[in-house]
Amino acid sequence: MSNHIENKLENIEKQVEKLATITAQGFERVDEKFEKLEKKMNQQFDGVNNRIDDLAHTRAKVDVVTNLEHRVTTLEETIT
Fold first, then answer.
1. DSSP letter at 80?
2. What φ, ψ does residue 52 adopt, rounded to 5°?
3. Cβ atoms within 10 A of the Cβ of 38, count?
4. More confident residue, 40 or 4
5. Residue 31: pLDDT band with limits 50, 70, 90
6. Cβ-based neighbours of 76, under 8 Å, separated by 6 or more
7. Element (H, E) at 55
8. From CA 27, how far away is CA 33, in angstroms rounded?
9. CA 42, CA 46: separation in Å to the nearest integer?
């Protein structure tokens, strides 16, 4: 009877080890997926940041042109 109990315990130990291995592999896959997601999100944030920088630069150009237009209009009104 003690041999039967030992066999059961061995079987339980093997199942626990198998479950631990499967769980560890699952965590490794989750880590890989998070790394891929993080890389993709960083690329997207970089793209958005570049677009914001471009818009700010364009806005600055528009402000300069608008200011120059106003100054030219004022000069034209003064001259005429």
1. -
2. -65, -45
3. 10
4. 40
5. very high
6. none
7. helix 2-79
8. 10
9. 6
- For the record, the structure tokens of 47 come out as 């793209």
pLDDT average, residue stretch 48-62: 89
Paired tokens of 52 = 């914001």
Distance of CA 9 to the CA centre of its chain: 46
Average pLDDT (4-30) is 96
Structure-block tokens of residue 50: 């570049």
Between vectors from CA 42 to CA 41 and to CA 43, what angle results, nearest 5°?
90
pLDDT per residue over 37-53, tens digit each?
999 999 999 999 999 99
Give the chain's length: 80
51, two tokens: 């677009």
